[in-house]
Design brief:
- With about 200 residues, the chain is of the alpha+beta class.
- Helices cover about 20% and strands about 5% of the residues.
- It has helices at about 35-45, 100-105, 175-195, and strands at about 50-55, 60-65, 120, 125.
- A hairpin with a 6-residue loop joins β1 and β2.
- The longest helix is centred in the last third of the chain and has 23 residues, at about 175-195.
């Protein structure tokens, strides 16, 4: 009985690289070569360099074309698009030809490096940096800053305590009593002298 080549079954929507058993965007099938060998085979076949990226949706590892984007670049586990996964951003006006930024640069005289994806603050979906709302949940990608907290009310001023010192009474008798006694003594002395002379 002659050997019959059984075609390899590939999931719908997953691209394969010509001349290799490596499935782009999916884990290798059982019995296939190691991922590194599959990547080398694809590169040697002229299919373009592959890069290993991490799916933003489920964290699975996948291989996508580094020289161009493909409509088949979806995660084989959760079907999350891998268009922006692993894309780096160069400084404004500066792009290295060996990096992904040079390959994804805008055409024409614009020539600006592609912006990094902007993660949604609500669901974490990667969106284009120029978009205003999330493509998945519709949340605002650049929400206004929260209002500053209301300052607490000032504490009431402590009550002022006024201390009044009471006068300390002196030890001598009242002035009117001293004057009265002095007047009586003086009158008695004058009367005695007058009687003695007369």
């Amino acid at each position: 009985m002659s050997d019959v080549n059984v075609p390899t079954r590939v999931p719908t929507g997953v691209a394969t690289s010509p001349g290799s058993s490596m499935v782009v965007g999916a884990a290798p099938l059982e019995g296939a070569a190691e991922p590194a060998a599959g990547v080398a085979a694809v590169q040697s076949a002229g299919a373009g360099p592959l890069v290993e990226v991490t799916c933003p949706g489920c964290g699975a590892l996948a291989h996508v074309r580094a020289d161009r984007r493909s409509a088949a670049d979806f995660c084989a586990t959760c079907d999350h698009p891998l268009f922006w996964a692993g894309v780096r951003s160069a400084p404004e006006g500066v792009a290295d030809d060996a990096s992904l930024d040079a390959r994804y640069r805008a055409p024409g005289v614009v020539g600006t490096a592609q912006h990094s994806p902007l993660a949604c603050p609500r669901c974490g979906e990667h969106n284009h940096a120029t978009w205003g709302a999330c493509v998945r949940c519709g949340a605002e990608l650049d929400p206004p800053p929260p209002p500053p907290p209301v300052p607490p009310a000032p504490a009431p001023a402590p009550p002022q305590v006024v201390t009044v010192e009471r006068p300390v009474p002196c030890g001598h008798p009242p002035v009117w009593l001293v004057v009265l006694i002095s007047s009586i003594i003086s009158a008695a002395v004058v009367a005695g002298i007058f009687l003695a002379v007369g």
